[in-house]
Structure of amidase:
Amino acid sequence: MKASNKMWKQIAQEAQALRDETLAKVGVTIEIPAQLSRNVTDIPDRVLSASSARITSLAPQEIITLASERKISAQQIVQAFLERAIAAQNLTNCLTEILPERAISQAIELDARLLGNSAPLGPLHGLPVSIKSHIGIANRPLSSGYCAPFHSRQRPDTDALVVQILTRAGAIVHARTTEPQSMMQLECTSNLYGVTTNPYSNILMSSGGSSGGEAALIALRGSVLGVGSDVGGSIRVPAAACGIYGLKPTAFRVPTTGWSSTPPGADPIVTVLGPMSVSLEGLEMFMRVVAAAEPWRIEPALIPLPWRAVDIVLSREKPLRLGIIWHDEVVKPHPPIMRALKEFVNKVSNVPHVEVVDFPPYKHDEAWAIASSLYFTDGGEADLAVMAESGEPLLPLTEWIIKDNPGVKLLDRGELEYWLEEREEFRMEYSQHWNETGVFNRASGNWEGTVDAIICPVAPGVATQHNTAKYWTYTAVWNLLDYPALAFPVGKVDKAVDVKENRKRFMSDLDKENWKLCGRTDFPTPRYVLLNTISTDFQSC
Amino acid sequence: MKASNKMWKQIAQEAQALRDETLAKVGVTIEIPAQLSRNVTDIPDRVLSASSARITSLAPQEIITLASERKISAQQIVQAFLERAIAAQNLTNCLTEILPERAISQAIELDARLLGNSAPLGPLHGLPVSIKSHIGIANRPLSSGYCAPFHSRQRPDTDALVVQILTRAGAIVHARTTEPQSMMQLECTSNLYGVTTNPYSNILMSSGGSSGGEAALIALRGSVLGVGSDVGGSIRVPAAACGIYGLKPTAFRVPTTGWSSTPPGADPIVTVLGPMSVSLEGLEMFMRVVAAAEPWRIEPALIPLPWRAVDIVLSREKPLRLGIIWHDEVVKPHPPIMRALKEFVNKVSNVPHVEVVDFPPYKHDEAWAIASSLYFTDGGEADLAVMAESGEPLLPLTEWIIKDNPGVKLLDRGELEYWLEEREEFRMEYSQHWNETGVFNRASGNWEGTVDAIICPVAPGVATQHNTAKYWTYTAVWNLLDYPALAFPVGKVDKAVDVKENRKRFMSDLDKENWKLCGRTDFPTPRYVLLNTISTDFQSC
C-alpha cells in the first residue's frame, strides 16, 4: 500500500514536470505580481507585451479574418496565446500542458500557405484552440483526471477526431486543460495537478468543473475557443462560474472518437463534447465546422444532421415564447441568481413579440434519482480500481459522488433495465409536460404555441467554494433529457444588493444545505449565468 | 399446471373467436375452392367481385388519387380490401382481426369531407393500411404473440402514434396481422392463431416472420401498405419470402409509442417499425408521411430529421458504386439466391455509370455473437414468465432462440456492458471497413469514392419450410449496425436451373446445416429477393 501510495505522487510529479517543461519551451518569462487581488482577470493584460495583449483581446472571428488576410501571422497569434496561457496557468493552475512546438510548426505551415497564394486552410484559419485533457492528442499522455492512466495508458497515435476536424479547418491546438479526478465533479481538482481556481476570486473559489481548466483559461483569454465535455453540467457549470459561454449539444452531434472514455453509444447517460468560448459566435463557429465535416462518416453513432442555425424572427404571428424556471422546487438558488433571473425577465418582457411565461419544473428530484443511478452502474468499481492502481486518495467530491450518493450502487441487469426504462419514461413525460405549454391541434396532431426555450439557473449559486459543489440537478436534468443547453453570462454579484436571505422554511434538506453555503465568505465576484435550454424545435442543435 | 395449460387454450379460442366475429361483420362470404394448388396468389381475383378485384389491384398512389378525386369512394375501397383481406385470411391465416366498423365509419367521414368540398384529408386519403398486431389500436387487445397478455393487458385508450399519424394523413386501418410467439422468429406461428403460411406455397412453407401476417396479406393484395417491425430481419425476411417490398429504417425514425414493447431507447438492439408494401413507392409514401408529422415532438427519442428522398443521378463524375456481398463467409445461400444475385449484377453492370465491386463481408459471425447476446439480456426470463402465466408451450423456434442459442443467457451488468462496448466497436470497425472501399482524402478528412450501397442476400435461402429458419445473420447484421435495409423482389425459383449443389466442403457447421435444408421438398415457388443496404450517405433513411 505504501509503495503504491508513493506511486501516485511520483506520477503527479512526473505529470507536473512534463507540464512545466512544455511551458518552459515557450521561452518567455511571464512575471506574475506577488500580491494579487482576488480578481485576477486584469493581470494578463498587465504582464503581456502590448502586442500579445491586443491579439488575445480579439474576438474569434477577428483573429481568423486577420490571419486569413495576412494582417497578423498565425505565428504571432500562436505566440501571443501561448504567452497568455502561461499567465493563466500561473494565476489559476488550469493547464496540463502547452503545445508550443506543435502549435508553432502548424502556424508556420499556415503562414507559408498564404505566402504561396493558397486560400486559407479553412474557416478557423489561424485560430488557437484549447482542448480538455481527456480528449486525445497524438503522442501525448491521456489521463482522464486519474494518476494511473497517465503512466500506463498508451499514448494515442493520432489526434481525437474532433481535434482532427478543427485542425483541418485551420485551428491550432495550443493548450490542454485540467480536469478533476473522476471527471465527475462540478469543480476541478485532481491528484495529478491540484486545484484549478477561479480567475474572479483567486484561490478562494473553484473554477467549476469538470471542464474547469477550459473555463479558467478562456475567462483569462488564454484561449478564445476550447472543447470541454459534459455529462451532468461539466461544460455549463464552469462556464457559469467563470463568466464565459458554454454549449452542451445533444448527444451524438460532436464526435468522441479518440477520447479516453466509453465508446460512443454504450453509456446510459451520454457524455458529450461541446464548445466553450468568450462569445456565442465562438460556440456556433465550432458547431458549424464540426457538422460540416460530416463526422458520421467516421463515427457511425453520430447523427447525420447538418448544423441548423436558428434564425429567430420576432413577429406578432409567432412570438418567441420563453418559459422561466425560477427554481426547481427542490433547491432555491442564492439571491444573486434570483436577481439576475428577474432582471433578465424584466428586460426581455419589454422586447416586442417576446412572451415570457412561468415554466413549472417537472419532477427534478426524480430526474436526479434517475441520472445519479445511471452515472456509475458498477457502483464506482472501475473508478475505485483505477485509483487503487496508483494508490491515489479519493478527493472529497469524488468520495461524495461515488460513495455518499444514494443513487450510486452496483446495479444488477434488472435494476439497470429498470433505470433505463425510467429514463425513457421521464423523457416522454417531460416532453409531454413541455408540449402542454401549448395547445393540441387535433387535425395536425401537433402541439402549437408551446414554449420555444426554457430559461433557468445554471446552478443554485455562483462559483462555489472548494469542495462544496454537490447539487447537480439544475444542469444534470438536461443531460438526462438530452436537450441542448447553453450557459451564457448575465451579470455579476452586487454585494450591496445580493444579501443572504433569512430563511426559516426550506423546500428540502438540500435546499437548506445550499442556503447555508450562501455568503459563507461573503460573495465572490464571478459573473453568474443563466441556462438556456432550447425547445424540441431546435432539439438537435 | 393443468389448469394453466387449459388457460392458454381458452385464450387462444377467445382470440380466434374475436377474430372470426370481426370477419363475419363484413357481411360477405368469400368462398375458397376446396382444392388449392400450391400457389394461391391467383385465388383472390377469382373469388372477389370484378369491382373489388380491380380496386385491390391498383397501386397505392392510384388508390389515393382516385379516392381524392372522388372517382372511387373510400367506402368502396375499404369494402374491397376488407373482402380481399378475408380471402387472404382464409388462404394463409394472416389476420388477428379485421376492423370493418372502424374502417367503414372512417371511409364515410372521408367521403363526406369531399362531398362538402373540403380538400382530401391528407396524402394518404382513402388508403387502407394493415398493422402488425403488437402496434396498439384503441380499445383492441394487444398481445405481442403471447397468450397471457391478450387476456391480461389493458386495452389501449388510443391508437399507437404511428397509427395516429397515418390516420391523420387519410389512411384507414382495416386489418391487423399475425406475429409469432415471442416475436423473435423469422417465421410466423403462435399459440394464439396458429401458423401463417406462404401464399406462393400454401401450407408447405412459411410466410417468414416475424411480420409474416403483413407479408402474406400484402402478397395477396389484401393490403397494399402495412406496418411491420424488425429487430433481426422481421420485416425483410417475410418480405423476401412473399415477394413484396420491405424497409427496415434506421432506429428512432418511426415512432413506437403505443406498441407493446420496451420504451424507445431502452433496448440494446433497437426494434424498429417500418413499412411493407406491394411497391417501392408505398414504402417511400409511408416514410414521407411519418417524417412530415414531426413525431419527435411527441416521442423525444426520435431524431428530428426530415425525410430525405435519395435522387440517384448517374454520371461519369460520380458513378453509383454498388458493393456485392456474394455470401457472408459463414453460410452460402442456396442456388436460386446465388443465381438471382448473379443475374442482378449482370444487369446493373451494363448500366452506364454504375460500378459494381465485390464487398467483402466483415466478421458476420462476430456480428451474430454480439446481436444474439444482446437480444435477451435477461436470458429470456421475462418471456418464459409470460408463457408460464398462461401455460402456453414454447414453440420450436421460440425454444431455439431462447434456449438453444449459445448467445442467450442472463447477463450480469458487467457482461451487458461488455457486449454494449463490443457492439459499439463493431459499428466503428464496420464503418471503417466500408470507408476503405474508397480513398482517404487527407485534406478533407473524408473517404471518397466509397461504395454507395451494399447488395446482399436477405437470407441463405428462399421461403423456409416451417420451423427451419434459424440463420438470422444475413439480416441481423444490419440491425446490429443500425443501417437502413431494403428488401425488394428480384425473381422466382426456376426448378430446371436451381438444382441443389453437390457440396462436400463447408465454411461452417451452419453452412452445412443450411445446405441440408435446400431442396428437401424440392423448391417451392416464392420469389426471392435481395437485400439492399444503403451507405452512410443515406444512413438515416
In short: Chain B has two domains: 2-297, 320-369+412-538.
